[in-house]
Design brief:
Layout (H helix, E strand, L loop, with lengths): L7 E7 L3 E2 L8 H17 L8 E5 L10 H7 L9 E4 L5 H14 L5 E8 L7 E2 L1 H12 L3 H6 L11 E2 L12 H11 L4 H20 L25 H4 L24 E10 L1 H6 L6 E10 L11 H13 L8 E4 L4 H12 L1 H6 L21 H4 L6 H16 L3 E8 L3 E8 L1
Parallel strand pairs: 3-4, 3-5, 10-11
Antiparallel strand pairs: 1-8, 1-9, 2-8, 5-8, 6-7, 9-12, 11-12
Helix pairs in contact: 1-2, 3-14, 6-11
């Protein structure tokens, strides 16, 4: 559990998430982060105020983004005396940044702070190969024109071939989608079940927008006011026409472009504080962070790449003397519909819970009506480092609407890790 003072979630803001190479193609992480932090400052009247820390992160970023948290904070409207830190843990980045700020508040090191993240798959860092990079560095270091030219002796046109950021796991060579296909086969997750979850995510997100749930959570940017991935009219019939996206040859592929999250750009952030700071500044506490946890699996030697949340949740529940059924909301990040369904099936499996989680009985089934009640990543999109803060802000507002309760947050990440948390009101 988070030891020390209670950590309050006061709320969050995000820009609409947009499909790769659409509205935010030329913005980049800093621009998206500045818009999001600025909107959060505006929402809570923080202009000129000094907070304890701003923690931001990005997964796909240029070398110039090395100080992203501080640079975004300096352009946000906060006091320039507010420090900034830049973090990264793949898809768990902004949940980790929230945990980092929360732990500092709990320890009494700071009174308030912001955790968030941004990601772009449109403005990706494209670099030249090692040979040309060495030549350019040598030329830059050379003192005379002759020495600069000498750095290019033996140059070949093939050295101009650029290197693009890889999406495969370095230790397996497989993409996340290929790994998830393996999981779907291992757990016998049917294509129909995946499509049903994807359709439900779109319909729930669309309904939440229509009733105004996101009016104070999503701020317009670049002429976009809603996630442009959202398809309110999608149906099982439409999804059934799509071909497999990752396993295209075996005839057993079940993951498609529709039941997998698309490459997405976006940013999100949450304001956290001690109860005392919130009261002094006149802000309502939406909920508190009760606990958070991170686990990993050995995906290189056979475990499912995205199964780490099953372990993290089990360990966190045990530490808090809670059962899987002791929650009113389950916010499980939908990297792929199959990944969510594998997670749920694993928690219901007596064998998995006994042999992998070391439990005497299965964690059991959750109520489907409590799963991602206002939609999730399949409908909103998944800018890697922005998803965690989106989920926290969404869950916190749902707890406020309910008047109380408990939310379980679960996010799988590249590298076989899972970041999870418990929110309470």
């Amino acid at each position: 559990m988070l030891l020390g003072r209670p950590v309050a979630v006061l709320g969050g803001v995000r820009i609409p998430f947009c499909r790769q190479n659409t509205a935010y193609a030329d913005v980049g992480n800093l621009g998206m982060s500045v818009r999001t932090l600025g909107a959060l400052v505006e929402k809570f009247g923080l202009h000129g105020q000094q907070l304890g820390e701003v923690a931001m992160g990005a997964v796909i970023k240029h070398s110039s983004d090395w100080n992203l948290g501080r640079e975004a904070a300096l352009s946000s409207g906060l006091s320039p005396l507010t420090p900034g830190i830049t973090l990264q843990r793949a898809c768990g980045t902004s949940l980790d940044s929230i945990i980092t700020i929360g732990n500092k508040i709990a320890a009494g090191q700071i009174e308030s702070g912001i955790g968030g993240g941004s990601d772009t798959t449109s403005d990706v860092p494209i670099v030249y190969g090692r040979a040309l990079r060495r030549r350019l560095l040598a030329a830059n270091a050379a003192k005379t024109p002759k020495d600069k030219l000498a750095a290019f002796k033996g140059f070949r046109l093939r050295e101009l071939k650029p290197d693009f950021p890889g999406v495969a796991e370095p230790r397996t060579g497989k993409s996340m989608g290929e790994h998830c296909e393996d999981m779907a086969k291992e757990w016998n997750i049917a294509r129909d079940s995946q499509d049903e979850l994807a359709v439900a995510s779109h319909h729930k997100l669309a309904a939440a927008y229509e009733r105004g749930f996101f009016d104070d959570l999503v701020v317009s940017f670049r002429g976009v006011s809603r996630d442009n991935i959202l398809r309110p009219d999608t149906s099982l019939a439409k999804l059934a026409t799509l071909k497999p996206a990752f396993d295209k040859v075996s005839g057993r592929g079940t993951l498609t472009a529709a039941n997998s999250t698309p490459l997405t750009d976006g940013a999100s952030a949450c304001l956290l504080a001690s109860d005392e700071w919130a009261a002094t500044h006149g802000h309502e506490v939406l909920c508190h962070i009760r606990d958070a946890h991170v686990s990993a699996v050995d995906f290189v030697h056979g475990e499912g790449l995205l199964m780490a949340p099953t372990v993290a949740v089990a360990e966190m529940l045990a530490r808090n003397n809670l059962t899987l059924q002791d929650f009113d909301i389950y916010e499980i990040h939908e990297a792929f519909a199959a990944q969510v369904l594998c997670t749920l099936r694993a928690w219901e499996s007596e064998d998995y819970c006994r042999t992998r989680l070391g439990l005497d009985a299965p964690l059991g089934r959750i109520d489907p009506a409590k799963l991602n009640p206002v939609g999730s990543s399949l409908a909103a999109g998944h800018p890697f480092a922005a998803t965690g803060a989106r989920v926290v802000a969404t869950a916190a507002k749902q707890l406020k609407e309910r008047g109380g309760g408990r939310a379980l947050i679960s996010i799988c990440t590249a590298g076989g890790m899972g970041v999870v948390a418990i929110l309470e009101r």
